[in-house]
Design brief:
By secondary structure, the protein is an alpha/beta fold. The protein has 8 helices and 9 strands. The longest helix is centred in the N-terminal third of the chain and has 14 residues.
Length: 277
């Protein structure tokens, strides 16, 4: 049995509008390309119309893949000279890669707290934007054999309960939710693989109930079911994005972040199951 603490998220500042970025590119040009391996020495150019060009590498957690792939397609369509590459992985690993000098231009995190860590280490250029909110949900095996009804099940000693490892964003949110609902978590699994791994364990029947990001549940297909947590009892993370200080294509990085924070980016986030910031 473990008593939880409270996690408080924070909203971070905005970025320059896309129009201003495009004008800046027209006046000043861009930086060098960035790739997942070795940065290119070729500097991106701008067309007569002022469109962005070059390569843009975005670092983000795997569960955001669907949303960001849609954003990539839209951004590339709007900027035919840009190629967006995705470096998707575990959040702690991504931060280690950035700190170690792996080339990248944009960082997207599942919560504002992780973005705060990157900012405090000087990885981020300027302010970050909260681009969406990711609510939590309960996931159970198909048919809900244990008869789970709500968040109180997370404190039931008779159930096999799975939550994220406490150092992860979803683990911190489980602490916050438990505190909000006055629940003493009785977790059998503290999953280091995060929310997606808990969905997998529910799909194989290894747990009776898990607490996950709601946007991760569909990956379990017909092997799992989602139990919606009422808004009054729920918590959500603040999905955040920022240009990186080491970016070799800074103007394009700022433009991509501005797009994610725009109405167009919000539309794509909503289609992927995220909530408004």
């Amino acid at each position: 049995m473990m008593r939880t603490g409270v996690l408080t998220g924070r909203r971070v500042g905005g970025v320059a509008p896309l129009l201003a970025v495009v004008l800046l590119v027209s006046a000043c040009g861009g930086g060098a390309d960035a790739t997942d391996a070795v940065p290119s020495t070729a500097a991106p150019q701008t067309s007569a119309a002022g469109s962005l060009t070059g390569t843009l590498t975005v670092m983000a957690p795997g569960p955001l893949k669907g949303f960001l792939e849609a954003a990539k397609s839209r951004f590339e369509a709007d900027n035919p000279g840009i190629t967006v590459q995705m470096n998707l992985g575990h959040v702690p690993t991504l931060l280690t890669q950035i700190e170690g000098g792996v080339p990248a231009d944009v960082l997207v995190t599942p919560d504002a707290g992780t973005m705060g860590q990157a900012t405090s280490k000087g990885m981020v250029s300027g302010a970050a934007d909260v681009i969406a909110r990711s609510p939590m949900a309960l996931v159970v095996p198909a048919g809900n054999p244990a008869g789970v009804k709500g968040v109180d099940s997370l404190g039931a000693a008779s159930l096999r309960v799975g939550v994220c490892a406490m150092e992860l964003p979803c683990g911190k949110l489980s602490q916050s939710l438990a505190s909000k609902s006055s629940i003493s978590l009785d977790a059998d699994t503290l999953e280091p693989g995060g929310s997606a791994a808990i969905v997998t364990k529910a799909s194989t029947g290894e747990i009776d109930v898990g607490l996950v990001f709601a946007t991760d549940v569909p990956a379990g297909g017909d092997k799992v079911e989602s139990i919606v947590i009422p808004e009054s009892a729920n918590v959500s993370s603040e999905v955040s994005a920022a240009a990186l200080a080491a970016s070799s294509n800074a103007t394009a990085a700022e433009a991509f972040v501005a797009f994610l924070a725009s109405s167009g980016g919000l539309e794509l986030a909503s289609k992927a199951g995220f909530l408004k910031p």
